[in-house]
Amino acid sequence: MKRIILAADIGGTTCKLGCFDETLNQIAKWSIHTDTSDSTGYQLLKNIYEAFVEFIDQSQYKFSDVVGIGIGVPGPVNFETGEVNGAVNLYWTETVNVREIFQQFVDCPVYVDNDANVAALGEKHKGAGNGSDDVVAITLGTGLGGGIISNGEIVHGHNGSGAEIGHFRVDHDQRFKCNCGKSGCIETVASATGVVNLVNFYYPKLTFKSSILQLIKDNKVTAKAVFDAAKAGDQFCIFITERVANYIAYLCSIISVTSNPKYIVLGGGMSTAGLILIENIKTEYHNLTFSPAQQDTKIVQAQLGNDAGITGAAGLIYTYIIEKEGVK
Ligand SMILES: [Zn+2]
Questions:
Q1: Distance 191 CA to ligand 1 centre (A)
Q2: Facing residues of 145 across strands?
Q3: I need a surface site. Which of 79, 85, 196, 198 has the fewest CB within 10 A?
């Protein structure tokens, strides 16, 4: 009997969809437009279901071959109930019970989790996490997100806010306001947005020349421009890069004494833009971290890129159904 897993990684503009075999190898992937016209989520979830039906109809599989469906959603998720409590990017203004809605269409189990959590699960099983049971994934993009896998399971916490590491306060001067309503969160100083915040904060104090001065004046500075200039030896950009790296290293050291991961996987646009950033993070991490908690812990670059979400969404079914069958 051949069994398959269906997966959806819902994003603000597209939904990535995938089909995997029962050992989590990708069989197919495709994407559909994200319909955000319905704030109850029903229409979007129906579109995803119909895309799955279309795929199954054209494939050698039947719906009865599906072990389960995993769904990653950009918002806070109650893993137990499948409820999503307001996904801003999808314009879901109220609580949407993704599992309950999807279960109107299908009989197989449906698992729902936050997109950063499923990305971490994807990297654990098929990416830089190398199958380890203790993996932390940090996504350095426009914002800063993360997922923590501990003892093989995703850390959700009592109401689903576990691993919301972007809102860990590292900037005690609280110079920049965060999207969450508070100030000083690591997202405000160590994401792509955070790099720009720091540049704009420090450059009026500059006493020497910087190659990105014109970009700053034109309001066009980006994290990538800063890292590129740092690589080329620009002292101001090296200073900014070190600041950003120190914040991330501090976060990694706190995570290390909390859950002692084997791999800390850095993903997102910023991790590919700057090897110089990762090297700085490693150096500071080793300086800061309690020695037993960093022994054999590796800081590595993510490997799955855009596929981390669908792989991890399918990984929910693999982790919570298929792997558990084996230990019966
Ligand atoms: Zn925040």
A1: 12
A2: 139
A3: 85
244 Cα–ligand 1 center, Å:
16
**DSSP bridge partners of 19:** 6, 28
Do 178 and 58 fall within a single domain?
A: no
State the Cα–Cα distance between residues 139 and 308, nearest whole angstrom: 11
Q: Are residues 135 and 118 in the same domain?
A: no
Q: What global pTM score does this model have?
A: 0.92
CA angle 117-109-43, nearest 5°? Answer: 75
CA of 165 to the centre of ligand 1 (A): 9
Number of domains the chain contains: 2
- Span from the CA of 19 to the centroid of ligand 1 (angstroms): 35
Q: Cα of 182 to ligand 1 centre, how many Å? A: 5
Distance CA 185, CA 188 (A): 6
Based on the fold, state whether residues 284 and 314 are members of the same structural domain. no
Q: Which residue has the tokens 């109809």?
A: 57
CATH number for the domain harbouring residue 115: 3.30.420.40
Ligand 1 centroid to Cα of residue 169, in Å, is 8
pLDDT at residue number 180: 86
Q: How far is the CA of 211 from the centre of ligand 1 (A)?
A: 31
Owning domain of residue 37 = 4-123+306-326
Per residue in 152-184, pLDDT (tens digit) is: 999 999 888 889 999 999 999 999 999 889 999
Ligand 1 midpoint to CA 181 (Å): 6
Alpha carbon of 176 to ligand 1 centroid (Å): 10
Same domain? 96 vs 181 = no
Indicate whether 21 and 106 sit together in one domain.
Answer: yes
CA of residue 177 to ligand 1 center, whole Å: 8
> Same domain, yes or no, for 87 and 220?
no
Q: Are residues 104 and 138 in the same domain?
A: no
